[in-house]
């Protein structure tokens, strides 16, 4: 019996090594304590490691395991583990768009009773709260909430004659940049962030990629991207592609590539749609080659609500962030759920926002003294309002296929035109019905 048991353990560890990486899961915690493996994405590693220590107890230790940088690769690694019923996947940091897929596959252990009330109370902003619910269950805990705003140089906007205290449109932003030797920074590479932009443009015009009332029907969801809103979105992309405001790497642009265009050695800078990390990024680059020149230069950084797709129709800023899921096959479900509550509480969210620029999903944290000291009051208000009133991507168990189908028909952005929404609708419908392959 003892020999067979040892062989099982060795075989299990060997299988884990072959499928992913060698983990502490093949052994217990120090001093007989349980070990909880927490898979995180690369954002905020310093603070997340501190949270892992802070939230460890006399009964368990939380050990950080690093996922790949790409959200798609993160999903792939976690999905492979959970499909194999891996008991060493205790906690995981999930992009909100993957929560429905994992919950639908029953890979997440739902929070119940008091714990459900703890992770999803009235303090959680609406946009973040919607990402952790599936089939009337709380299937994850919101940790930090991401959204996009329009970042810009105040001097550029003033020169262009734009009143940034009022809503601005994509047309206005592109024209202002084109007429003043500036550029517009976006994410238009063939990856998930490009779909984020497309979805926000469509929702900002009053439409959706899928009919929200049918989206949870999975493969039977109604595709609605071929619409006036879809054409409006395509029009914005085409206008930027054809303009002098398009950056040289437009077709391969990502969250990081346009950062250097805000404070160039020469020129007026840029308008840029990007996530909440931008403020802390530039604050840390004062007087560095790619950053603002002194405090005065940093004060030239401005921010405003995400641009309107259609003038007069409120924009729908993208919703992102990280939700903490508990693996359904964990050997330590009770410990893992308690740990998830700890790493997502208000204190944890405050640390992530102040230290890493990863903004909270709780309104009380935005109102805290710590955040008011770390960020301008109007920026905090903009972030929280954008999360609370923003637009989520389709909440579907088949989101990865939806995203890939959209990318395949909307990329390159230089090829987007009036027929793009219909082409993508036809292809997406065929993908969902199993009549085409990606």
TrEMBL record:
<keyword id="KW-0813">Transport</keyword>
<dbReference type="InterPro" id="IPR006059">
    <property type="entry name" value="SBP"/>
</dbReference>
<keyword id="KW-0732">Signal</keyword>
<dbReference type="InterPro" id="IPR050490">
    <property type="entry name" value="Bact_solute-bd_prot1"/>
</dbReference>
<feature type="signal peptide">
    <location>
        <begin position="1"/>
        <end position="24"/>
    </location>
</feature>
<protein>
    <submittedName>
        <fullName>Extracellular solute-binding protein</fullName>
    </submittedName>
</protein>
<comment type="similarity">
    <text>Belongs to the bacterial solute-binding protein 1 family.</text>
</comment>
<dbReference type="Pfam" id="PF01547">
    <property type="entry name" value="SBP_bac_1"/>
</dbReference>
């Amino acid at each position: 019996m003892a020999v067979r048991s040892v062989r099982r353990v060795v075989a299990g560890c060997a299988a884990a090594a072959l499928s992913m990486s060698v983990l502490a899961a093949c052994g217990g915690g120090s001093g007989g304590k349980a070990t909880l493996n927490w898979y995180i994405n690369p954002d905020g590693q310093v603070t997340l490691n501190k949270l892992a220590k802070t939230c460890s107890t006399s009964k368990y230790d939380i050990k950080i395991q690093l996922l790949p940088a790409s959200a798609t690769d993160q999903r792939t690694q976690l999905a492979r583990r959970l499909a194999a019923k891996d008991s060493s996947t205790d906690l995981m940091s999930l992009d909100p768009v993957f929560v429905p897929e994992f919950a639908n596959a029953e890979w997440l252990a739902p929070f119940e009773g008091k714990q459900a009330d703890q992770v999803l109370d009235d303090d959680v902003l609406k946009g973040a709260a919607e990402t952790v619910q599936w089939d009337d269950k709380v299937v994850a805990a919101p940790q930090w909430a991401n959204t996009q705003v329009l970042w810009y140089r105040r001097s550029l906007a003033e020169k262009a004659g734009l009143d940034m205290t009022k809503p601005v449109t994509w047309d206005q932003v592109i024209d202002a940049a084109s007429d003043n030797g500036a550029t517009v920074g976006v994410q238009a590479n063939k990856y998930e962030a490009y779909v984020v932009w497309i979805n926000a443009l469509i929702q900002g015009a009053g439409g959706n990629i899928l009919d929200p009332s049918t989206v949870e029907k999975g493969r039977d969801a109604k595709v609605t991207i071929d619409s006036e809103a879809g054409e409006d979105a395509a029009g914005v992309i085409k206008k930027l592609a054809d303009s002098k405001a398009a950056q040289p790497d437009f077709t391969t642009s990502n969250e990081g590539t346009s950062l250097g265009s805000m404070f160039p050695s020469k020129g007026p800078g840029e308008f840029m749609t990007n996530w909440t990390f931008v403020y802390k990024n530039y604050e840390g680059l004062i007087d560095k080659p790619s950053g603002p020149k002194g405090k005065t230069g940093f004060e030239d950084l401005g921010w405003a609500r995400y641009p309107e797709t259609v003038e007069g129709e409120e924009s729908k800023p993208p919703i992102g962030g990280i939700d903490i899921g508990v693996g359904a096959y964990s050997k330590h479900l009770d410990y893992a759920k308690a740990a998830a509550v700890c790493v997502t509480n208000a204190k944890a969210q405050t640390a992530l926002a102040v230290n890493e620029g990863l903004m909270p999903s709780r309104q009380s944290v935005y109102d805290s003294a710590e955040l008011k000291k770390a960020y301008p009051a109007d920026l905090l208000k903009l972030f929280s309002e954008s999360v609370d009133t923003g637009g989520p991507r389709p909440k579907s168990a088949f989101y990865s296929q939806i995203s890939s189908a959209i990318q395949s028909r909307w990329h390159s952005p230089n090829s987007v035109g009036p027929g793009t929404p219909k082409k993508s609708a036809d292809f997406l419908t065929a993908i969902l019905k199993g009549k085409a392959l990606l």
